[in-house]
Automatic annotation (TrEMBL):
Molecular function in Gene Ontology: acyl-CoA hydrolase activity
Source organism, top-level taxon: Bacteria
Gene that specifies this protein: paaI
Protein species of origin: Roseicyclus persicicus
Lipid metabolism listed as a keyword: no
Keyword annotations from UniProtKB, A to Z: Hydrolase
Identification of the protein by name: Hydroxyphenylacetyl-CoA thioesterase PaaI
Pfam family membership, one: 4HBT
Alphabetical list of InterPro entries matching this protein: Acyl-CoA_thioesterase_PaaI, HotDog_dom_sf, PaaD, PAAI_dom, Thioestr_dom
Domain Thioesterase: 50-125
NCBIfam families (alphabetical): PaaD, unchar_dom_1
Amino acid sequence: MTEEERARRSAEAMWTTDTASQWVGLRLVEVGPGRAVMEMAVEDHHLNGHGICHGGFIFTLADSAFAFACNSHNRVAVAQHNTITYLSPGQRGEVLRAEAVEMSLTGRSGLTDVTVTGGDGRKVALFRGASRQIKGQHFEEEA
């Protein structure tokens, strides 16, 4: 099995039970070994009291991209801690895109960076997540 196939099958297995990402309106655009891209169209129910995308939804978008990237090796990985810096607001009607790239995977510990961009390509947020692989796989692999 190729690393690309492993990442795709891991993502398919995760997506079936990721009701939170689905409920928020996220879309998994692509996945590969140590990387993932997700998108979210900013709708009225994503807006805060200032009429811009609520930071919690931007965090959720970045966190979900992070999750699919660090789980792409068919080993269950969970977050240890995450940070986010907001750079510009998400606007009603635009599509936000989160691109996650695994920067390091040493033993069971990973570090993944996620860049969230707006429809015009501007940076909306920078996210860094630390992951830890735990017991389990997303699907059974033949030896």
